[in-house]
Amino acid sequence: MEKIYAAVYILDISYRIDRRYVYFIPPDMRQHIQKGSLCVVPFGNANKQKSAVVVDFSETIDFAGIKPLSSIMDYPIEISDELVDLCVFMKERFLCSFGNAMKTVLPPGVNFGTSVYYTVAVDELPEGYNTVSEVLFRYIKTKKKAYEKYIYSEYSEDSEKLLKTLVKNGILEKQSEVAERINEKNVKLVRLLIDNEQAEQLLDSEGKITDKQKELVNLLLHYPKISVSEIEEISGLSSSVISTLTKKGICERYEDRIERAPYEDSTFEISNDVIESNLSEEQTQAVETLNTLVASGKPKAALLFGVTGSGKTKVIIETVKKALSLGRTAIILIPEIGLTAQALSAYKAVFGKRLAVIHSMLSVGERVDTYRRITGGDISVVLGTRSAVFAPLKNIGVIVMDEEQESTYKSELTPKYHARDIVRFRCSKNNSLMLLASATPSIESFYKAKSGVYTLIKLTERYGGLQLPKVLIEDLRNDEKTFPDKLIGTLLEKETKNNIDNKEQTIMFANRRGYNSYLSCRSCGMVYTCPNCSVSLTYHAYNGSERRERLACHYCGYVCEPPKICSACGSKHIGFFGFGTQKLQDEITERFADSKFIRMDTDTTSARYAHDKMLKSFGDGEADILFGTQMVAKGLDFAGVSLVGVISVDTLLYMNDFRAGERTFSLITQLVGRAGRAKKQGRAVLQTYNPDNEILKLAATQDYEKFYESEIKLRKAVQFPPFCSVAVFGISGENESSVWEFAKQFDTTLDETHRKSHSGVKIQRFGPFKDGIYKMGGRYRQRIIIKYADNPASRAFLNDVYSVSLAKLPNGIKLDIDINPAII
Length: 824
Known about the structure:
33 strands; globular
């Protein structure tokens, strides 16, 4: 097919006008253009130059008035056919713009903006032009490449008409380029300017160069590409030695771009059992089944369901090795940045420099360089968090989602995708295996496995015949009268002291950071709340390790000093209620004075690589107790940990969401599973005021299938996923009455669109009503919930409702949509 017309998506337009636009391809561009090409097109009545991506071609069209493409960009980042198709899928599935999808797929720092510039097309300006034209011509000729924005700043936007005239008359040429903002990293290097034979002669000579200079020549012979800093580090030679040989013409300094490879020198210790151990009988059967699926060359899906400590990582490694043996590639997803170092050590020990890491804490430059290494074919295995699912690997053989049930796989930013949906799409495109792994799978995934949609593979025993941890439920009601203010109950205190005495390690979990959950006046009852959000302020006693009191909002970042007297009634009796990790820290310091501890929460891990350093320190035995929020609960594997303590199970049990029970069961099971991963049986202490809670009992026995049977009956009875899909429309704005008015208008639009155009689509709708946190960041929030069956007709209905409503959107009001949100 001859490429005469190109279908493109514009990259920076709103969702309501986001569709395919067709442009004529000038003959001189046809040889160079391809699917995924970044181009510049005239858009709208003003023909404003816009960046666009080519998604398709045609030889003929059935309408007139087609504009030509302006130019094709020479772009430094490859956009493959698969990634283009993925962006189209995301647009249709998650109701986002193609541009937003593309910005999510490519690494941050990649800029789609265009810069327009002018160059002279003739040596001299012909006669007949006025003085302003001559000044402008000389300016552009001097610059050689004059950017439009700088011309406007120098000569005002009145020069726009003059520029058009000069271009039309062939005096100037107008061109566009990608406005890159990818920072390259250059390094100062040294190399020989003489050949190896001459260098050898210098080393054998007497008196031509000094001993130190000979040392440098010898070093450059062995290291043809070495940096100035490496020379100083290896040999101790100063820069003056380099300068002297440079003056003699023996060597030279130069700069070159280096690719940043984060975690290249990771040294996190990992148990050899993960790498070198023999497979158990269950593991062998699991690997054989998975290898067959990988080798089939067809899109497949499997759920690896194994108890904590059953050796799922070893099975994953063997499955990835099978994919590589077939000449294919692999992606391994993990839910938390905090797990990167441990997971990396296990996988790096096997895959070495073929492995790359991607997660959100990497710098822009590191992510761009990693992207280039992948597209250049240097990488065959990518490990990372949610965003690693977009790694531009080709010929993918398997994509693994470890701890697939975790809510962190769902993006809270537009486009609000779930990594599982992206994995499914990419595996379908690559005829590869989607491998989900968990001890507590999501209800939706286990339902598909039980229904035969996924291949279900079970690991029912801990590797090496180890026993599951012994779970002790501590009824805090027994401690309340004697020790009303204690966080650590009598049983947990006793077990922790035993651990310290026996040189064993303990992990403690608290569900909140900060010191106290809220402050309240004991006289009038006023609770101190955030002025921007409808939530209480959390009391913090520390800023990092430094003692510094403040009240903070964990949603918008508002901070203020704690009050001395009540602002409502003047009382001095201010009460501090609830607890967080900082209060737990003080109690650990008091109860276990001789112990060493590490606190791990958002406040202590904000620095670069802080997670990795803390976990390495704990793994090296430098602390007796690791405590913190959910980041200490998932996937950690420390041989020294024999005890896990949950400070308050009750803070998990009673959340206002249909997935609350599932999340609580999963978190408790994961926490309990951190204990006893070496030879000795572990223990777990669960502190609660409600020891008879059924979810707690099931989690204590780690009986997931019994929990599933109970939960799936409830989901079916009330028609929640997996028996339907859920769309949540969110409406927000700073003016409360305007938000209410638009919510009513949206409800009317929804009703009319359904009745007039999509009456065959079955839906259940709820709302509009206030969001759980009604005010956040100064914006009032309403939402409408729709249950529906996921099919093209339903998606078309949601798209129409969204598009029509966006067209009616008043100033100051925001409307967004979230398909199957993690929390409703």
